[in-house]
Amino acid sequence: MTEIIDGNAVASAIRAELSEAIETLADAGHRPGLATVLMGDDPASQTYVNMKQRDCEEVGIEGTHVDVAGDAPAEELFETIDDLNDDPDVHGYLVQAPVPDHIDYQQVIRRIDPAKDVDGFHPENVGRLVAGDARFRPCTPHGVQKLLEATDVSLEGADVTIVGRSDIVGKPLANLLIQKADDGNATVTVCHSRTENLAAKTRSADVVVAAVGVPELIDGSMIGEDAVVIDVGVNRVDADTEKGYELVGDVDFESTKENARAITPVPGGVGPMTRAMLLYNTVKAASIQTGVDVELP
Ligand SMILES: NC(=O)c1ccc[n+]([C@@H]2O[C@H](COP(=O)([O-])OP(=O)(O)OC[C@H]3O[C@@H](n4cnc5c(N)ncnc54)[C@H](OP(=O)(O)O)[C@@H]3O)[C@@H](O)[C@H]2O)c1
Question: Is residue 166 lining ligand 1, measured as CB closer than 6 Å?
Fold first, then answer.
């Protein structure tokens, strides 16, 4: 029987452990603080930052939010970043992407103090991850690693095919899974839009991770017998629902679940893990900055 990997359950266990670490920090006088910055009023981004703030409240992290007008000059955003870099009560923060067109996102990332970069996107943190000394693992790849751990799949020597090479998912995940480490040691193939014969590369894999942004690109015929399938994709497609759309992954769930040994649903798979791992990075940042040791899940 195919295992449906319950991301909500794994995330909630992680959050429970984080709550304990948060109380240890708070008892020592250092309640972890996470700030979100939103430039402009993109509705999807607003939803994401609201969810992040709600998550903070639920686990006992002090959440703060800063809005910057969408037409403000870059300098105004940089001043906000500099203030957050200097604020000892903010242990981690992020600038919600996408930023307006007149802002250079790479310049934004480089301005963030790498010690507070809980998204893990600053070049210093990317370099540390590649070198096998990660400070903050980017939230989605880290969440995928935790789901694989919960699924009890042995990565040692396993063939993993990742479809997608973005800076936030595919590339960091590939780098994590090839590390000489218990949660690494895989043989990783990274596919993208120029890959030829994608199906052969997914079919031969023990683990397939889809992070593409194309609804149901991967179907059951592209998955080998007994493979583990992690679907990172979140795509809105028109549907006869109250909202007029539904969310589907990059994997065709119904046909894939026939072959797969285990599969994540969308929603309820990777999404809750990404949110949990942002809290994890915030607690880790607070622990490093305050010198208070805590046990992380
Ligand atoms: N659940 C979560 O928490 C979470 C977090 C992050 C992202 N997501 C979702 O994950 C998906 C991917 O996000 P992303 O930010 O990584 O996307 P992205 O930056 O748009 O990257 C997509 C990748 O897929 C590749 N690709 C596109 N079409 C392809 C095709 N037909 N065959 C093979 N490869 C193809 C692209 O190749 P090229 O490089 O050649 O263009 C690119 O490497 C999206 O649905 C996003 O909403 C979910």
Answer: yes
Rounded Cα–Cα distance for residues 217 and 1 (Å): 24
pLDDT in tens, 40-63: 999 999 999 999 999 999 999 999
Specify the ligand 1 atom closest to the Cα of 275.
Answer: 3
Backbone angles phi, psi at 226, to 5 degrees: 70, 15
Ligand 1 center–CA 283 separation, angstroms: 28
Q: Where in the chain is the domain with CATH 3.40.50.720?
A: 139-273
Tens-digit pLDDT profile for residues 102-132: 999 999 999 999 999 999 999 999 999 999 9
pLDDT in the model for residue 26: 98
Instruction: Give the 3-state secondary structure of residue 95.
Output: strand
**What's residue 106's pLDDT?**
98
List the residue whose alpha carbon is closest to atom 3 of ligand 1: 271
- For residue 162, give the H/E element and its range: strand 159-163
Determine whether the shortest distance from the Cβ of 271 to ligand 1 is under 6 A. Answer: yes
Low-confidence ranges of the chain (pLDDT < 70): none
- Residue 130, phi then psi, degrees to nearest 5: -65, -35
The verdict on whether omega for the bond into residue 265 sits within 30 degrees of 0, i.e. cis, is no
8 C-alpha to ligand 1 centroid (Å): 22
Residue ranges, comma separated, of all CATH 3.40.50.10860 domains in the chain are 25-116
pLDDT in tens, 227-258: 999 999 999 999 999 999 999 999 999 999 98
Domain 25-116 falls in which CATH fold?
Rossmann fold (3.40.50)
Q: Are strands 62-68 and 159-163 parallel, antiparallel or unpaired?
A: unpaired
Report whether residue 247 contacts ligand 1, using a CB cutoff of 6 Å. no
Fold of 139-273: Rossmann fold (3.40.50)
Catalytic residues: 52, 96, 119
Q: Answer yes or no: is the C-beta of 287 below 6 A from any ligand 1 atom.
A: no
